[in-house]
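User: Run a structure prediction on this.
Assistant: Running it now.
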Amino acid sequence: MPNQMPINHLNHSKKPHLILVPLMAQGHMIPMVDLACLLAGAGALVTFITTPVNAARIRPVIRRIESSGLPVQFVELCFPAVEAGLPAGCENIDLIPSPDLFKTFMESLSLLGPQLKLHLAAASSAPPPDCIIFDSLNSWASTVAKELGVPHLMFYGPSCFYILCSLLLKKNQVLKTIADDFELFPVPGLPEPVEVMKAQVSRWMDRPGWEKISEEFYAAEDSAQGIIMNSFEELESSALELYRKEKGKKIWPVGPLSLYNKDAESQATRGNASSVDTQLLVNWLDSKEPNSVMFVSFGSLARNPFSQLVEIGHGLKSALSSLPSLSFIWVVKEAEKGDGAKKWMSEFEAEIKGRGMVIQGWAPQELILTHAAVGGFMTHCGWNSTLEALATGVVMATWPRFGDQFLNEKLVVDVLNVGVAVGAKVPTLFVDEMSEEAQVKGEKVRKAVVEVMDGGKEGEARRRRAGELKEKARTATEEGGSSSENLKDIIRFAYSRK
């Protein structure tokens, strides 16, 4: 467990009671579990709202938190999936079986509102809530807070850079003037020049038919008394400064939240149970030279068609020939779908035995990234994964898919200069039917791997910058650091409302 950050002046017999309401998606739940533990360690009572299916997924984490003695309570609300028009048990975005049901799922989240309100009103044995912290996509929770007269804060999972860019694009009505989805144009008002394409930055909530959800999102953002972010001051100082000016309210970056998990057990169980024997994995990594392993993983939602799996495999195998010292770990969720993929993957594993490890299912990502043997990370640029790489000093090969990921790539490659773009240009929504044609050919994969792992003087400079950001991340979360102090300020905010 982490070093706790007590707030000496607080009367701990009257700890503030914070309610955390994460979005039902792995990438949103994982950092909010970390946030719950940090807030509890800093002097709060925390209630974490979830559902039966999602609680089952993080059961090892729940048990670990309960055994630690941290004052975190997990409350399971019943999500009426069938009533909402969803399959039974569809309680997480990655369980949505069809693109047509994504909007249904997002609209149905508000069905949890009356249950949360009843729970908070009826919980006579617990202290009343002093503050509700809700995921930015759970606008319904801000409605509950307002109805109960409880202060509420928004938790933003993405980078401040992405949030700021989205705000500036909307404020300046830029996308309405761009006809070509793939025309490069600059994001106005940024301190650093960044060019993007319309297709890469259009938010799903701003599409036709989503007006109600969009209005509720922006209303919740405006009504929140402050915003919590999984980032840190030293990483995004210019973006945070400009965003604070734009919003005119408290902005608290408290990350990297992944650094809460300091031991191998907590790293291995973060988010879900590992699909590989962790001791076997660590032994394999221990046998490799420092910075010699490329880790390849594309998050919990992105899916590759079979043709793309083949291209990735060819690129990785070709990179082994280019770099004799290279090894890799490749997380493949798609291999379980279809006999063709299974057969090809079996043959591929035999060919790369000893120099490559394939993990089919969920991998203990943070445990892998913290190992000294890992020197590169091919990632979809989800913010959790990006921030974990930054916090561990690992250089990235960036392959964004949708949402905030293309702007995260711009931050990593163009602003921070700690990554190399693989070359993906076209967004592929996680719920869309994937094209059978591979978007990125094997040669681009090989080239990106070689550039990250052996990029000459430029590669050395990237690795040096990544190491500097790693140290800044750790300093931010230590006692007296910027994230540590921001966390304490959130507790003070909630305490002052008692």
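The chain has 21 helices and 15 strands.
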